[in-house]
Amino acid sequence: MAKQIRLNAFDMNCIGHIQHGMWTHPRDRSASYNTIEYWQDLARIAERGLFDGIFLADIVGVYDVYKDSPAPSILNTVQLPVNDPMLVVPVMAAVTKHIGFGVTSNLTYEPPYLFARRASTLDHLTGGRFGWNIVTGYLDSAARGMGLAAQPDHDGRYDIADEYMDVVYKLWEGSWEDDAVLRDRANRVFADPSKVHRVQHFGRHYQVDAIHLAEPSPQRTPVLYQAGSSTRGREFAARHAECVFVNGADKPNTRMVVRDIRIRAAAHGRNPADILVFLGRTVVVGRTRREAEEKFQEYHRHASIEGALAHFSSSSGIDLSRYELDEPIRYEKNNANNSAVEAITTHSREPWTLRRIIGQMGLGSRNAPIVGSAEEVADELIAWVEETGVDGFNLSRVVTPETFEDFVDLVVPILQERGVYKHQYARGPLRQKLFGHTRLPDTHPAAIHRRPALDARQSAAE
Q1: Is the dihedral of CA 239, 107, 16, 36 positive or negative?
Q2: Is 349 buried (19+), middle (13-18) or exposed (0-12) by CB count in 10 A?
Q3: What is the rounded distance in angstroms from the CA atom of residue 127 to the CA atom of residue 76?
Q4: Are 346 and 334 in contact (CB under 8 A)?
Q5: Percent of the chain at pLDDT above 90?
Q6: Could you tell me which residues come within 8 angstroms of residue 337 by beta carbon, excluding any fewer than 6 positions away?
Q7: Of these four, 32, 251, 351, 444, which has the most CB atoms within 10 Å of its CB?
Q8: Is 377:283 a contact under the CB 8 Å cutoff?
Q9: What pLDDT shows up at residue 126?
Q10: What pLDDT does residue 305 have?
Q11: Are the C-beta atoms of residues 181 and 214 closer than 8 Å to each other?
Q12: What value does the mean pLDDT take over residues 59-79?
């Protein structure tokens, strides 16, 4: 049986997400991002296409590195204004039955005790369809908004994140035993106090002495996503993540990143098959190649290059306005998104210049889209899976909802005909659909905080 391709609809609770300027297109509805109808329509389209999930990006802070000002981002609505992604999940869950929700939340600025409850709440409300995209942030503007002079250094943020994960694992997996909740009306016993335990954690960055506020949700720990592709980010993903989001400009580099993540996972005692890798891609598809190319040119007329440069400058921490058109971009170690810097410097076979970057920004994004007929798009997606080892794609919108509607109507049937895409959803919570089990496997680091494993460790220590 051919490998089944996984798909997420990639969006953000804002107007300008990845392809900047598209809100000006007459058929685009992204300016309605602050309505319930917008999100419910997206969820219905994605579930009709049997997508595995809706992957919601998020950012705390504003993009203000380009020209040393937030003005370009404000003018071009570059992920600003941006609303909370968590709050639209119940809205979408209410009109769907199967699709999952991978939601970005920055652990740097929220205590684990409160976040653990929010995640459990969403897992309850969605019937076990919630996933968390773990990020540590990369914007100094966010740190200033939270009362700090600057964000912690890049690798230090991941050290903090490792401890954060230990805390939430203890809360989700170890506070309430599986049979703690009785709901016994006759004897007036809701839960057995002897099976509800205080979590005690006294670490370098976090101190917690508390019972988890939520009873166990369907998955207990939500499906864990991670989107860091730097060396330190891949190490974090290998230890914690179940779904890893990567951006690869070419197949050889993407293949290297995927292989590295799986090798690192094995070194942590995990089964590499317990990790799915999603590649970020944009698709412009038509019934014929000519129709797709005409659509691309139509979209291109609405693209904002300034918006794309403002986005990339803050992502990389490099003010691209300081470079001449043909001046090679230099590696700068900073506390922004290291993988974005490495992609155009140390990990690139050829030097990148501002002219080359702009040349790829046909849709107001730094990554060139896949443009072609439905058959050509299907061929290209299958080739990426076969040649790089990725498991699927995070498909970003161009014109919404048109981009996802076109993909669902034109490409999904061909992928199904080729035997590489499902015809119906599997049963069960999100993790069950993705991996065949509802709880994290015993090889995952969270498992040691489950009560039987924890009791055994304590007995051995005594």
Answers
A1: positive
A2: exposed
A3: 38
A4: no
A5: 78
A6: 138, 230, 315, 316, 317
A7: 444
A8: yes
A9: 98
A10: 92
A11: no
A12: 95
Helix (H) or strand (E) holding 251: helix 251-267
- Residue 287's alpha-carbon distances to 365, 396, 400, 427, in angstroms, are 24, 20, 18, 33
Tell me which of 66-75, 135-144, 177-186, 390-399 is least confident: 135-144
pLDDT of 313 over the 60 cut: yes
Asked whether residue 445 is domain-assigned, the answer is yes
Residue 365: the pLDDT is: 84
Residue with tokens 């019972």, as numbered in its chain: 211
- Name the one residue in this structure whose structure tokens are 């703690």: 180
Residue 229 lies in a domain: yes
The count of structural domains within the chain is 1
DSSP string, 121-179: HHHHHTTS-EEEEEE----HHHHHHTT-SSPPPHHHHHHHHHHHHHHHHIIIIISB-TT
Contact 61, 139 (CB under 8 A): yes
**DSSP labels, 432-461:** HHHHS-SSPPTTSGGGGGSHHHHHHHHHHH
pLDDT band with cut points at 50, 70 and 90 for residue 309: very high
pLDDT single digits (tens) 240-264:
999 999 988 789 989 999 999 999 9
93 DSSP assignment: H
Say if 370 falls within a structural domain.
Answer: yes
Q: Quick check: is 1 in a domain?
A: no
The residue range of the domain holding 54 is: 6-461
Comparison of pLDDT for 420 and 142, the residue scoring more = 420
Name the nearest CA neighbour of 391 among 281, 278, 259, 261: 278
CATH assignment of the domain containing 395: 3.20.20.30
